[in-house]
Write a structure and sequence with these properties.
The structure is a homodimer. Chain A is an alpha/beta fold. Helices cover 43% and strands 15% of the residues of chain A. Chains A, B: This is DUF2520 domain-containing protein.
Amino acid sequence: MIKTVIIGFGNVGFHLAKACKLANEIDLLQIYNRSEVEANEQKEIGVEFISNFKLLKKADVYIVSVKDDVVANVVQQIPFANKIVAHTSGSLQLLNTKQNDAVFYPLQTFSKNKLLNYKTIPICLEANQKKTFTTLEKMAKSISPNVYSISTEQRQELHLSAVFVCNFVNHLYVIGEEICKQHQIPFEILEALIEETANKIKTLSPVEAQTGPALRHDQKTITRHLTQLEKTNFKDIYQQLTNSIAKKHGTKL
Amino acid sequence: MIKTVIIGFGNVGFHLAKACKLANEIDLLQIYNRSEVEANEQKEIGVEFISNFKLLKKADVYIVSVKDDVVANVVQQIPFANKIVAHTSGSLQLLNTKQNDAVFYPLQTFSKNKLLNYKTIPICLEANQKKTFTTLEKMAKSISPNVYSISTEQRQELHLSAVFVCNFVNHLYVIGEEICKQHQIPFEILEALIEETANKIKTLSPVEAQTGPALRHDQKTITRHLTQLEKTNFKDIYQQLTNSIAKKHGTKL
């Protein structure tokens, strides 16, 4: 069993802790969090929680899941040397410390109040040593079969892609919901469409899957939509994405 | 059985034809299309195809699934009076012709080369007569249990929402795929994330489901992403959607 400590109990730390508890190869010893974690969350994970680095146990692997701008500082607080220390950031480079530096980047959208099936999560690994990589690979594979060796540069591009296909997509759901609310339409009517839109690109490429007024060169509908959006904040977004679709697909608008 | 003719064999007509063939209450008599339909597609549906309005059979319901700007003209070609004539447009008003005018709007993204489960598709109905509505409701319910009475104004807003949550979302997938391709990253790595992003809003509202740098007030990552996008067409879209998320969630950027 790989003795593991998680440092940071935000959305990612929370789900990694749950995933580690389920994994056969991982012995989750402790979770460190800067502030005290609520009792019900502590109970949900069922492991020792600490808020003081002096109480940190010796482990094989420390997963550092804190905000990007404090990762380097947090790693310095680990009072042991030559340990595997992996951050979970999509953006940060591989660190260069006295530890065996690594990256353990689970590519998913994490919210504490949303259950996840960890077996489908892609885990992207990077390490400065083969031995470190092998240990992390064993660990990752006991969570999910989808484990990838990804360089810092690739990870940064993956993270950027993820912002488009997840964070920005979700914001478009927010806009769709707001339009529905303003016109007393239940947002649930759009659920099947949202599901199919995501599902479609498993069998078609996104370029093949494109539909809609911008693709069809349907200027009348586009003009009507822009009029409908007149008093909202979303008109510019509509215009810009419509132009981008037209440009990509060579549609004249 | 409700005798039905479909006029127009684009993406929507194709899938409606398949759905009608599966429905117990619907007798699909014919499909009209302006140009001749390929033999393999004719065979897939297994019904008479015509390209001449003179060959149109008498039916209870004509579903008109053609481009918005030719709908009115096509309806005039129907050589029978007092029939139920329903268009499938998300944008057009209820027509006002010598027929029993109606709308039969299936809210989904349709591509011919993508199989669909018709039982999950919401069907939005509108009619100028109660009797017409009742017939269409019977028809729609034999395709899917999700049948709604939706006014023209609501339908136009639904269609606008659908552009955001489907057409624009798919374009963000296109962008995500392009970034991956440029950096030799298999787009499949993002599949679980895309699926979870769509799935998440079944249990959380889209506002609660939001994650990412714009929400976290993570200016460093945003700046890095904009640099990564420097030579692409996607920088403006990134900037605009990031600003919109920040505005919506009251994040200071």
